[in-house]
């Protein structure tokens, strides 16, 4: 059955016509719920049959070693397919699904770098290519173009910049560096690795960069996937909830404002949203938008965004209960890049596995780009190439331990801990990851078919 996505009836009051329209729809079935969200938000109002359309989901990355529960981590494949179906019904034939998932793995002879192609395979995106003729694109396989902003420049995918109609499809999830990762933040996946590293800057806040992406990329439509919402995201450590929300608008700010409110945040408290609004003289009051569809209050699900750390900033809060001492791992900051940030939990878990009741021998672990060594530690672990470059000659370091990488790998962490005499147990971490992946099994609210399409290689159920 062909579903018509026609523009919604426009209100005749002048005050209504001046406001950007945003729809909030309860997800009930595919593709009908998304079709309703697009009708109510006039989502296809500016699209034409001959356009080159690019869909940018949130596919943050895949781990080929350990299982991942996908709920709230990735844009649901079901909603991406719904968008493809509706575009084709609307007469659009040139559809590309593109992402720039961070590449990781081994470089050099015989090594492999895992990125967008791996997650396309894990979730079964080839099904969309074979059934609908869409193109699947890794942004890193295509050129980037330098784009100047106020006092800096970023390299942005040319494919994204040249598309006639960009559809941004973020997930409703929190982020441990920027509080939320919604539409504005999701566009970070369109820039190259050099620019991403630059965004985790020693002097310029990450949120400032996140507030600028949308001014260069300018998505024609933003659809926030809130079928599942993720607390303490953006990756596998987060806890997902089923809330069945879809938010859609031609105005990216409207989507992020509603998304923030659903997650229990005042939009002004999310720095990149507030910075964008201030720079563009925009209101963050929900009354400044025409909201169509469901009552916002029915979807609200306050989400925690951060992980608790010890009051003295020497490690995760659960180390207090375990009595871990003799070691300091200060909390990550915005200067640590995504690749190394994803290795922060394995690092702390491996130290936890090695703790046997006796204090460590005086170890400090430093990460990101601006941490400095403290006096009084016997060994200083410099986590990642940025820390090594910054502090390798610091006179406060008695003995330096280099955990090299950009990003750091799990193998490098284990190897360097072994050289330090730290008997870390990878089985401990593996069991932890297994438990995270299986915690939704048997719960009818969590449907793996929302993510794993026919031919998916990443489904372990």
Set down the secondary structure blueprint.
Layout: H1 14-17, E1 21-26, H2 32-41, E2 52-57, H3 77-89, E3 94-99, E4 104-105, E5 113-114, H4 116-123, H5 126-132, E6 135-138, E7 144-148, E8 153-157, H6 158-162, E9 165-169, E10 171-175, E11 179-181, H7 183-186, H8 193-199, H9 206-210, H10 213-217, E12 221-231, E13 239-249, H11 252-262, H12 271-279, E14 290-293, H13 318-322, E15 327-328, H14 338-341, H15 344-354, E16 363-366, E17 379-383, H16 385-391, E18 400-403, H17 410-419, H18 426-438
Parallel strand pairs: 1-14, 2-3, 2-9, 3-6, 9-12, 10-12, 15-16, 16-17, 17-18
Antiparallel strand pairs: 1-13, 4-5, 7-8, 10-11, 12-13
What does this entry look like structurally?
By secondary structure, the chain is an alpha/beta fold. The protein folds into 2 domains: 292 residues, Rossmann fold; 119 residues, no CATH class. Helices cover 30% and strands 20% of the residues. It contains 18 helices and 18 strands. The chain starts with 13 loop residues before the first helix and ends in a 23-residue tail after the last helix.
